[in-house]
Amino acid sequence: MNVLLDEQIDVRMKLALQEFSACTVQDKGWLGVKNGVLRERLNQEGFRFFITADKNIPFQQNLTLTNFTIILLDTPTLLWPHQQQFIPKLTTLLTLPPETLVKIVHISVEGLSRGKKIASLKILLEPEQILFL
To answer: Model's pTM, two decimal places?
Structure first.
C-alpha cells in the first residue's frame, strides 16, 4: 500500500488516486482508531502517505516516530467539490521520489484554503520537515 485516506476524506478521492494504490481507513477496518494507534499501523503496513483534513494531527503526534508523510488538505469544508480541487497537487506530490519527502506537506488551494495552522506548523517543525504547496 502506498496511500491511506483518513476518514474525513471523501471516498471518491480513492478513485482519483487509484494509480497510487490508495485505500481508506474504512477499507482497512480502522474507522475510529485513535491517532497514536493509527500512526503505528501506518508504519507497520509500510504506507508512504497519509492524507487527512485534520489539521491538528501534527500537534497530537510525535512526528519523529512516523515513517510516512502526512499530507494536510487545507479545505474549508469536507465536501467533495472542495476536496477534488486538491487532486492535481496530490498527483504531483505522490510521484515524487521517497528521498525528497518531508514529514508534513500542507496543501492549499488559492481562494479556497484558510491557512490558519500555517504559522503554528512553522513553529512546530524545522523548515526541512515541512513543505507548503
So the answer is: 0.87
